[in-house]
Amino acid sequence: MTRDLTIAEVRLTPILVADPPLLNTQGVHQPYTPRLIVEIVTADGITGLGETYGDTKYLELARPLAERLTGRSVMDVNGLFGIDLGVDESRVQGEVDAGGLRGVQSADKLRLSVLSAFEVACLDAQGRALGLPVHALLGGRVRDAVEYSAYLFYKWAGHPAGVTCEEDDWGAALDPAGVVAQARRFTERHGFTSFKLKGGVFPPDEEIAAVRALAEAFPGHPLRLDPNGAWSVGTSLKVAKELGDVLEYLEDPTLGTAAMAEVSAGTGVPLATNMCVTTFGEIKEAFTRDAVQVVLSDHHYWGGLRNTQRLAAICAAFGVGVSMHSNTHLGISLAAMTQVAATVPGLRHACDSHYPWQSEDVLTERPAFRGGRVEVSDAPGLGVELDRDELARLHRRWAEDDGALRDRDDAAAMRLAEPGWRQPVMPRW
Ligand SMILES: O=C([O-])C(=O)C[C@H](O)[C@@H](O)C(=O)[O-]
Ligand SMILES: [Mg+2]
């Protein structure tokens, strides 16, 4: 049967999804975080799904792009990446992503962060049309399931009093005992066996104690600590020395390739990053200086699933490990992450995913973690279906918001609890 894979319609739906009060070095998560759901509909009625950041700067680029796609083919993914979105470099000059959690902002990274959702939607549509899973379109899977790590956060029991939010049942985690209790809940609920603690929240000694407590509670399990660049080189080396016997890797202890290279030269603990290598242009210097031993890819800002494979191939050529970064995302992205991770040979570190923190989704069925793994679906496309009622409900929340939550701002969310809070000057410790 021949199919008409011409794009007939592109639907963009910005939504706000509930997020618990997770702490990081910049502040705390807002009670609701913006995401953008992309639907690409072909002439013969197939719909492909994609998901990316929903903040205004992404929406402003996604909207005109969506209008330009009608009449093109979902097969023309290379052509998609040739479209000039007209991102003005001066608009992003000197900016950092998500208040400093995902490295530098650049015009190209902004462009790729939008295109990635459209690429995923095209691949999903292709797969549905051909009756093939996305991983088959990417060359086929080399594993049946993808391992994820439990993403532990220091956390308040609830958002500040008076703030509209959804309740969560994770409780508070503000000291080593709380972190261990949270890790136990992750294993009970999802079977995770490797653990990452988001650090940079409390002075390093307190975070060292939390990782030590995890090591005692889960002897021999892979552990990671990620302060998002909050430490000086000296502090990073001190932490590496104190935790060297239990860490799988230390993630972005300090900011910038030069400082990471200095830390790397002074410790045997592998360094991972989703901050100093976030674009292809940053690879050469970091690898030449041996600044990082593991790159955490993220298909959202690296520009999709095919770019993720390219990054993995470059890392392999340089003997650098690869794994995956995550921030707040829904099941469409988890399915996309799982499909591409299934195709990457030599993936030796469990991938990050925030998904267990998300109580809401726009899918009829949530992808499940079993034994800390997500099974690789062989269903056509991404193997997920949209729940239109939920999509409409979460969009209504976005439409009714006065604008306060439409752009993620962890420092602003923190000021609701601590009015004097300012984005910390780095290094914080
Ligand atoms: O470095 C990381 O792993 C992240 O930036 C992940 C997330 O952005 C996380 O820190 C968050 O959302 O608070
Ligand atoms: Mg990180």
Automatic annotation (TrEMBL):
InterPro entries: DgoD-like, Enolase-like_C_sf, Enolase-like_N, Enolase_C-like, GlucD-like, Mandelate_racemase_C, Mandelate_racemase_N_dom. Its cofactor is Mg(2+). Keywords: Lyase, Magnesium, Metal-binding. Pathway: Carbohydrate acid metabolism; D-glucarate degradation; 2,5-dioxopentanoate from D-glucarate: step 1/2. CDD domains: D-glucarate_dehydratase (cd03323). Pfam families: MR_MLE_C (PF13378), MR_MLE_N (PF02746). Its EC number is 4.2.1.40. SMART domains: MR_MLE (SM00922). It comes from the Bacteria. It is an enzyme of class 4 (lyase). The keyword Hydrolase does not apply. Residues 176-270 form the Mandelate racemase/muconate lactonizing enzyme C-terminal domain. It catalyses: D-glucarate = 5-dehydro-4-deoxy-D-glucarate + H2O. The keyword Magnesium applies. Belongs to the mandelate racemase/muconate lactonizing enzyme family. GlucD subfamily. This is glucarate dehydratase.
